[in-house]
TrEMBL record:
Pfam families: RINT1_TIP1. InterPro entries: EXOC6PINT-1/Sec15/Tip20_C_dom2, RINT1_Tip20. Belongs to the RINT1 family. Signal peptide: none annotated. This is RAD50-interacting protein 1. Residues 71-98 form a coiled coil. Residues 20-29 have a biased composition (Basic and acidic residues).
Amino acid sequence: MLPAGQAGEGPATPGCSESGDERKTEEEKSEINIAALVGNEQVSEVTDNGDLSSYVSAFIEKEVGNDLKSLKKLDKLIEQMTENKMQLEEQVLTISSEIPKRIQNALKNAEESKQFLNQFLDQETHLVSSINSHLLTAQPWMEDLGAKISQIEEIERHLAYLKWISQIEELSDNIQQYLMTNNVPEASSTLVSMAELDIKLQESSCTHLLGFMRATVKFWHKILKDRLTSDFEEILAQLHWPFIAPPQSQTVGLSRPASAPEIYSNLETLFCQLLKLQTSDELLTKPKQLPEKYSLPASSSVILPIQIMLTPLQKRFRYHFRGNRQTNVISKPEWYLTQVLMWIGNHTQFLDEKIQPILDKAGSSANAMLEFSRGLMMLVLEKLAADIPCLLYDDNLFCHLVDEVLLFERELHSVHGYPGTFANCMHILSEETCFQRWLTVERKFALQKMDSMLSSEAAWISQYKDITDVDEMKVPDCAETFMTLLLVITDRYKNLPTASRKLQFLELQKDLVDDFRIRLTQVMKEETRASLGFRYCAILNAVNYISTVLADWADNVFFLQLQQAALEVFAENNTLSKLQLGQLASMESSVFDDMINLLERLKHDMLTRQVDHVFREVKDAAKLYRKERWLSLPSQSEQAVMSLSSSACPLLLTLRDRLLQLEQQLCFSLFKTFWQMLVEKLDIHIYQEIILANHFNEGGAAQLQFDMTRNLFPLFSHYCKRPENYFKHVKEACIILNLNIGSALLLKDVLQSASEQPPATAALNEIGIYKLAPQDVEILLNLRTNWPNTGK
């Protein structure tokens, strides 16, 4: 059938759409897209079925269907299909003709690029050849030019060398002319310029020039220094320098008022001129330095005028305290230390009032008093460095030397304001051999002191026992002496220059604390049988006092600084865990924590032993009270006046006597801890062994409440405002046992019927029960015997 055959070609041609415009648009967007020719629904079917025959059948069915009249559309469909086929063929032919043209163009471009590249390569070859030829031609010129440049540079260096020599000679000639005309100030200023040139030349490799410069500076410096020094010493002699006598007689040389202004004017002039020589003096003179083992801090030399002023004192010091002089006694370090302090004190007023203004006027930052003290301190350090090796192994002499040095240092810093950052005697004592010996001697004498203080007859007696306000801690003499010993050790080492040395002393202190704790423990064990005795209580007071003082020291700035230093050392050596390092860094722990924990443990053990002892006595005294006939006691209405149960008297008397005894023997904080620990045990004992072990009628419950609230509790009213709050079990048990019948029945009913905890708890809270659980309250209610016969 022809229509069917034509229809069979339908899948290769564009399909029909709703309108001609839409079909044209679709054809323009797609070059070869068969699926788009038959609409969205047909494309979906072709994609789903993938069967051309099925697609054609479906297309015929849709366009023609069962209606024979629809066959009229076949011509139109065939025409559309033919048109679409022709369009597609045209598109294919167009594309087929364009592709070869593009390929040809690409090949043409590539060929052109290749030609350009070959041209560039030819040019490059030509240029390389030209350059090489030029270099060969220019090589002789280059060599000649290099030789000329080298000659020029050599001449320039010679010229610069000659200029430096000329400049040096010019300055030298100027100084000579100034000295010939007696113009010393200008000569000094010119020498300063020459010294500055010397400093600039330090990086030069011209050794001969440097040597010539240094020799010239040295030549003129010596001439000027000698000349000025001679004049300066004459002026000082007129002022009766040095002042050996006390400050009150320092104006002897100025008894003629007319000469004083001229002398001080000359003093200022010469002092300033000498001060100008400081730069050259530092270049030529190296300050005396002690061996490196002493680790002295770096410092500049003492200014030249002060050096000259120190010269007569240095001569005196070396004369008296060196050699075979009678004043040079190794066992008397206080002689030369005191002499230096006297010299500093004698000259302080003159230096502050006369010399310091000159320095300020000259624009110098130096401090006259400090420079003077530095110069004298070097004499002391040299003397100590020479003497210490001679007495290192004589404990008494060495200890005496250390004591005198520490006293000297204290006065030097506190009275004369000598800075701790400058070289001082503590640097000498910090030298390794000397320092280890110091630690050994310190430990030895501390242990001897501990032996003597513990063996003393007054070791366990407080010095302030008769003074109530002072004796709050009830500290025995041995404990106070020991802490004073530790405090003195702290004062002795706190000015050491390095943190590592301080930490070693801190370890010594901690060892001494631990040793003293062990000794206290040994004495305590001897007194264990008399745990309420005077000596046992004194030991307990001592332990508490030491622990308290160490806790206070832990917040001291000095020990906090040591804690930071220890943290850095531990971090470097990895000797602590991260947790411990964190606690130290955050200040949660202190350097004394280990010692405090051991002391607190000992204190707790001793208190526990005392509490147990008293509790046993009280428990024995309460046996009769426990067996009281609580079921048959008369009710409150049957008695005219309520009175204490006779069986409770031994209990209360024992308790009272022990409380009074320990209140007198223990310090306040310890006694507070003691009675609170005792009350806790007593509350549980009375509740469990007396109340829960008996049944109570109305009279028995009232009597128990009277004994507790009117007699037992008041025993502790002297130590707290509301003692009943420490007897929570007993207090609340008394409340339950003394409830009136109605309230008790209601409470019992609530406890039995309450399916949840909150209602029962609320009911108990209303009557003042907070400690006891509902189950405990039910047990107590069952201990009552005064229930009505018809009640539950």
